[in-house]
Design goal:
Layout: H1 25-33, E1 35-39, E2 56-60, E3 72-76, H2 81-86, H3 94-97, E4 103-107, E5 111-116, E6 123-129, H4 131-134, E7 140-146, E8 156-160, E9 165-168, E10 175-179, E11 183-184, H5 186-189, E12 190-193, E13 202-208, E14 220-226, E15 235-240, E16 245-246, E17 255-261, E18 282-284, E19 287-291, E20 296-301, E21 306-312, E22 315-321, E23 325-330, E24 338-346, E25 352-360, E26 368-374, E27 386-391, E28 397-398, E29 403-405, E30 413-414, E31 420-421, E32 426-430, E33 450-452, E34 469-472, E35 478-482, E36 494-496, E37 509-511
Parallel strand pairs: 9-17, 32-33
Antiparallel strand pairs: 1-2, 2-5, 3-6, 4-5, 6-7, 8-10, 10-14, 11-16, 12-15, 13-14, 15-17, 18-19, 19-20, 20-23, 21-22, 21-24, 24-25, 26-27, 26-36, 27-32, 28-31, 29-30, 29-34, 34-35, 36-37
Length: 521
């Protein structure tokens, strides 16, 4: 692939050691003699904007290169203004070094070849040569986009028995391993290994997971069916050898998934082993249910690892629980929905536990959301800590009787207030000693209502190391939550980024590094 001088980029990354360009090499490059090639592992040319997960990146400059000074990198993400500016002056800043992708670097008589140390994740990357290496004012950058298509590569997504499983029945009917892409030579390159380190006699079948009856996975699966019982009380492995390749020829292995057998065959199905439920969860035979007005979130646990399938109203869900616990979120329901659910929990030997359960969503809950938490203020703690609530609905909400807690099993502080929050409005929950005029943190807009709920928020103030928050109504029903994310730098809030105003998971909030906090807005 020929490239113009403006498109030229030397693609160099090494975990240790760097390169410099000999005098005259870039003069030749700028004269148009340089070539940049992106191929797959087999050496076949590919479109850089539809690259495989393991590309070979080749730069030809007309002369060999010497390992001396740092000049070029492969970065995660596209080349933004900050990166381009940093590449204009030495040295590269630490913030940009965090984006560097480790690669293996080899030199040729006329240039170099770069090979990522591990399969790249789908997404955007940038190859860049620093301006100081070119003797000019501007760096050279080439974009690379790794395709998410199944043909672009393959990573392991799951295995059964799961890695680290114990007490697996010696009568194991089948083991399998799943990948998220297309594989070559999988039937020859994957095997079941016994405690002696040799392959066990087993039938091997590779293909789409669904066609092999592995409903809990998508992509390519390899199923291994032993022709005899496994050795008792012994370590076994599902092994992926170097012969197994992705669709572009890159090796998948070697890798292995290990499990230990029990003393004999397993004739018993998993038994329920529910964990303790939160104050606002409903216990049921298999675990705990957090019931909302438009969703039901289930936590299910058993006595051993299991594969679960569930069905309700024509909808089906499948999941694996290698740690003997799993979660299932059912969204898109309506208030007052009656839900009849059936569950099957199957262990690695195929023994199954069946259970049926009835759930019903609540009527309309208050449309209140925790949207911002300042646990680490610049002002004194815990007095200047605060939590912001937002009425995301279209009706006013009376706040009297609402409860804020930092404990799953405790109701927390009740709000005693006459404040009625209009649609779209926000309110701040603060300690009794909160001083709105302190001035240390981001100022609070005039007119923003404050509700003082005691000596401190939570049981003893909001811990900077992070603790979850639960907002419940007067009946004890959860209406919103925030995760136990550690507080970022002093004076910076964690703010809701999810579209679901009730979501309390870790991914629902992020540090507001730009605005720091936006109280009342």
């Amino acid at each position: 692939m020929q490239v113009s001088p403006l498109a030229l980029a030397v693609l160099v990354v090494a975990t240790s050691g760097c390169i410099s360009v000999p005098e005259g090499a870039f003069d030749k490059a700028m004269d148009g003699q340089a070539q940049l090639a992106v191929t797959d592992y087999d050496g076949e040319p590919v479109d850089p904007l539809k690259a495989p997960r393991v590309p070979r990146l080749r730069a030809t400059l007309g002369e060999p290169l010497a390992v001396e000074d740092e000049v070029a990198w492969l970065f995660r993400g596209p080349a933004d203004g900050e990166l381009l500016g940093d590449l204009e002056r030495a040295p590269l800043l630490a913030a940009q070094r965090e984006r560097v992708v480790p690669c293996a670097l080899s030199f040729t008589d006329e240039g170099l070849e770069l090979l990522p140390a591990a399969a790249l994740l789908p997404g955007e990357y940038a190859f860049a040569v620093a301006a100081w290496a070119l003797g000019g004012e501007e760096p050279l950058v080439l974009d690379l986009v790794v395709s998410p298509d199944p043909e672009s590569g393959a990573n392991m997504t799951a295995a059964w028995p799961a890695d680290g499983s114990i007490s697996v029945g010696t009568d194991l009917p089948s083991a399998w391993i799943a990948f998220d892409g297309i594989l070559r030579d999988a039937e020859q390159g994957v095997w079941l290994e016994g405690p002696d380190g040799f392959a066990i006699d087993a039938e091997t079948h590779a293909g789409p997971c669904q066609e092999l009856g592995i409903a809990a996975q998508h992509g390519t699966c390899i199923a291994l069916t032993p022709r005899a019982w496994l050795a008792p009380l012994a370590l076994h492995r599902i092994v992926v050898g170097s012969e197994t390749r992705d669709a572009h020829g890159a090796p998948i292995g070697p890798l292995a998934v290990s499990f230990r057998t029990g003393s004999g065959p397993d004739s018993l199905p998993p038994s329920p082993a529910p964990r303790a439920c939160a104050l606002d969860e409903t216990p049921f035979a298999l675990g705990c249910a957090l019931i909302g007005d438009r969703s039901i979130a289930l936590r299910i646990a058993a006595s051993e690892p299991f594969a679960m399938t569930a069905e309700a109203g024509g909808d089906h869900w499948s999941t694996l629980a290698p740690s003997a616990e799993t979660a299932l979120a059912i969204d898109g329901l309506e208030p007052g929905t009656q839900l009849e659910m059936s569950f099957e929990l199957k262990d690695s030997t195929g023994n199954a536990l069946h259970h049926a359960e009835h759930f019903e969503t609540h009527g309309d809950l208050a449309t209140l959301s925790i949207t911002e938490v300042l646990a680490n203020p610049l002002g004194p703690e815990p007095q200047q800590e605060r939590v912001e609530l937002w009425n995301f609905g279209d009706r006013p909400i009376a706040l009297d009787g609402m409860q804020l807690s930092d404990q799953e099993a405790e109701p927390g502080s009740g709000l005693s207030t006459s404040v009625v929050l209009d649609p779209g409005a926000r309110v701040l929950l603060v300690a009794d000693g909160f001083d709105a005029s302190d001035g240390s943190d981001v100022p609070i807009p005039p007119g923003t209502p404050l509700i003082r709920i005691g000596k401190a928020l939570g049981s003893a103030g909001l811990a900077n190391r992070g603790e979850p928050l639960f907002l419940r109504d007067a009946a004890g029903r959860r209406i919103s939550a925030a995760p136990g994310t550690p507080a970022p730098s002093a004076g910076t809030c964690i703010a809701r980024v999810s579209e679901d105003p009730r979501d309390g998971s870790a991914s629902a909030f992020a540090a507001d590094e730009v605005a720091r906090c936006t109280p009342g807005r």
